[in-house]
Amino acid sequence: MTDNHIYEQPLNEKVRAFLRLEKLFQQYAFHLKHGSDWNNRIAIDSILEILTYTTRSDIKLEVLKELERQHTRLERLSKRPQIDQSQLSSVLKNIQKRIGELQAISGQVGQDTKNIELLTTIAQKSSVPGSICDFDLPALKHWLTLDKDKRQKHIEKWFQPFGHLDRSVQLILDVLRHSAEYTDEVAPNGFFQRSLDTSQAIQLLRISIPAGSACYPEISAGKHRFSVRFMKNDDPALRPEQCNEDVNFKLMMCTI
Question: Are residues 162 and 200 in the same domain?
Fold first, then answer.
């Protein structure tokens, strides 16, 4: 579906947290790759956001519990004759590998990074309105004058404690996103609603629409049902309006 745009809606706080972390990991990787002074700053900001997010709760434990839950569910599927046993075995091995990596981490994820003096100072200054200027933090300006490769190595070292968490979260979301198939749906006059089967424990909704579509979905979900309003907004300065024509889209209800 390379010509389609995917919109996702988590149906619980656990998946919501994983999606937020995934976005931060992607942001870090993008700016690390490009490596300019400005990219380095945003890569550092991404690390600090990841650090803040992971210290608010025991995210390592949450990820471990989800990996173990997925492993148990997938093992049950191995008894079904229609399942691709080779592919399933590969996924199960990957999950076991990630579980082992996380279990080997002692203490809180990112504790070493949290103690980096420059990062601590940047985090403190970031609370001041406006961007950090040279006069706010000469140490940062000096660090940015270092050779590009040296800065890259520093950043990679600061991110290293989160590497296993990054790979684990991505695996969890990959398994979830491949747990169902898309169905073809129609939203009459831009509105679609469906009841949720509570026995299935659906965790993530995915809506696929063609690239270049004039409409985009706004998804609202509760315990018993979800609704999708397809909106259009030709002028961002104005309030979006619901599309008044039928909208064809693809829906995936991810559960495992």
Answer: no
User: Residue 127 above 80 pLDDT?
Assistant: no
Q: Is the per-residue pLDDT at 150 higher than 70? A: yes
- In the chain, which residue ranges form alpha helices assigned H by DSSP? 13-34, 37-56, 59-77, 85-103, 111-114, 117-125, 138-144, 148-159, 163-177
- Distances, alpha carbon 158 to alpha carbons 48, 59, 150, 195, in Å: 10, 18, 13, 45
Q: Are 173 and 19 in contact (CB under 8 A)?
A: yes
The pLDDT value given to residue 1 = 47
Length of the chain, please? 256
- What total number of domains does the chain contain? 2
My answer on whether 154 and 39 are in the same domain is yes
Round the average pLDDT of the chain to a whole number and report it. 91
Containing domain of residue 35, as a range? 13-176
Can you give the pTM of this predicted structure? 0.91
Q: Is 91 part of any domain? A: yes
Q: The domain that contains 125 carries what CATH number?
A: 1.10.3900.10
